[in-house]
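### Sample
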Amino acid sequence: MTTNPIDTAAPAAAATTQSHTAPAPAVPPDGPAGPRLSPGQARWGLAAMFLGSFSLVTAEFLPPGVLTPVAQELAVSEGVVGLSVSVTALTALLTALGLGSLFPRTDRRTLLVVLALGAVVSNVLVAVAPSIGVLMAARLLLGAALGGYWSMSLVIATQLVPPDRVGRAMMVVNAGTTVATVAGVPLGVVLSAASGWRVVFVAIAVVTVVTAVGMRMALPPVAPTPGIGWSATGRALRSPGVALGLVAIVAVIGGHFAGYTYVRPALSLLPGADVGTIAVLLALFGVGGLIGNFAIGAVVDRHLPVLLLAVPVAIGAGVAAVGVAAAVPWLAYPAVVVWGVAFGGVLIVVQVWITRMMPDQVEAGSGLVVAAFQTAIILGSAVGGLGVETIGVGWTYLVAAVAAVAGGVLVRSTLSRRYSDGVAPV
């Protein structure tokens, strides 16, 4: 990165509405806007969050990259190993919705550090797992860390930067996700071929230890925001357009994961494909994701309505193209780049969307978005596995593409509904 978008970071905006269950702040606020941070403090805080995204997402999506060797060693089908992504998403969903209610007064920085250490334990257990049952149990723990991390990351970003820079702040945080796909997952494929898949999980456990230390040192204490708890979640779901938008997000992200969870078997259908070819294609997906993260993150604050439709359509186009690439092999290369660009920006788009829809309930809204993502991962990976086993890879990918495009049309409509109810765009 040559330009840091947070150099002008000022105090973050706190939520403007108070809940009757609003917790006491973890630290005394410095005025109505909350703790005041220097640009350097904001930079280091976002760097620590970047590292958290990288380590957790690498661990989350290593199974698709090492699907075949894990299945062979544990004597199960690739579809069963693919369900480890669904298992992870299940606990992530529950954690995203319930963590704030369980710890309504706990410093969010402390929660993140504890969750990161839980991810370390998970990765070590996977590395020594003697059976698929142990591996699945370990992935449940990783899911808890993921759900808690993503539900808190948007809250922390809103306290590090002003409201009109939330998109750019999340661009930095979410860059960890795209770097994980550029470097983490492809390197995992190569390392698993050279040293075995168990070594890969030991390596990511070490990286996650560094992550926990970095977050503890770089982040300031972060107080819970107003509007958390189960009652706040219920009110959030009743906000105009929010429930419909969450359904749409499930369709978009579910379409992505119905394809991505089984991307290695899909790419293996290409004539002459080997481990090296698959690693290159996954790296191209990651490069596209990195480009999409920064390109879309730089403009999302100003062009949200256009991107709400354009990004899902691009995901659908990329998925569909990969689905038919066995018949047209050269198509796989531009397809994974387009798919990666779109997926690299989709999380930022959705995060900015929820802050526009619910500016006074960011933590509750963030939890709902994470829950929608994890629901989509569960459904997408499960339905994708069923499709691969029954109708084949190509048709599964085409169905996934249709779901992504339909979801994009639906989520775009929620902004119009919101504004028609008298809520002005930000």
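Residues 316 and 402 are 6 Å apart (CA to CA). This sample (MFS transporter) is used throughout the tutorial notebook.
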